[in-house]
Amino acid sequence: MHPHITGKTRIYGLIGDPLKSARSPMLLNRLFAEAQTDAVCIPLEVGTQALAEFVKGARALRNLDGLLVTMPHKQTMLEVVDILHPSARQVGAINVVRCDKDGRWEGAVFDGLGCVLGMQRQGVSVLGKSVLLVGAGGSGRAIAFAVAAAGAYSLTISDLDPHRAADLAQSAGKEGSCNVHAGPPDPEGHDIVINATPLGMNPDDPMPVEAERLTPAMVVVDIITRSEPTALLLAAQARGCKTLDGEPMHLGQALLALDFLGFKNIERRYSTGL
User: pLDDT digit string (tens) for 3-41?
Assistant: First the structure.
């Protein structure tokens, strides 16, 4: 039961398929409750073929203020919204939609910025650092732009598809003065290693990098969110590395999304560590 939901409660939805392991509704509802905000986030499982029909119905809801977007809709939503935030235009994906009172939908993406913010909140800055990013897919693409813009000295992008890594390196290299290039998933010579691949979600997955080449001075970030540390994080911890899982990025994304959706007080409260 949710006794505090009334006819005035503003609704935010998370759309994707599947959503059984989705954690965003739980996180946002906790933030809403702590801030005593009359809002609720609910999961809305929408299949690929049903997106157009869902959007048509959702646009008729006058108490729907926003949507969080996860797979498989991050790219498809680009064709649905009325306005693209610069972040969505740059990355080519959307993970949050603001439903304005005038009926227009604006889409943005905070995967990469959320990763950088989450790292900063844990005392890890990319400024002046050499970063290895493994994975040039949706999240990896967003992280590459954010890391380059945040002042990293160099960024090596590695992917199973070398052409995808090279294309992303060329695009992200236009951000700031960061030296961005494609390369192998070799941690040697890097200050920060970020795994933006799905490798580690399953127990029998291969390592995204050679763990024996990690050194204690490195920070290892695995954006996978799960109850137990991934094999990469366990191996990094055994070698004395500082490690971060996907939770800081998840919270960073949520804070930036809430700010975009108009919840300035929530974002400021958590940005100051309160």
Answer: 678 899 999 999 999 998 888 899 899 989 888 889 999
Q: Which domains occur in the chain, in start order?
A: 10-108 (3.40.50.10860), 112-249 (3.40.50.720)
Report the pLDDT value the prediction gives residue 194, as an integer from 0 to 100.
98
- Please report, to the nearest 10 degrees, the dihedral formed by the alpha carbons of residues 176, 182, 185, 190 taken in order: -30
Q: What pLDDT score does 2 carry?
A: 61
Q: Residue 62: is its pLDDT beyond 90? A: yes
Q: Name the burial class of residue 56, with classes exposed (0-12), middle (13-18) and buried (19+) by CB atoms within 10 angstroms of its CB.
A: exposed
User: Residues for the chain: how many in total?
Assistant: 274
Give the residue numbers marked as catalytic: 74
Report the distance separating Cα 219 and Cα 194, nearest Å.
8
Task: List phi, psi (to 5°) of 94.
Answer: -135, 135
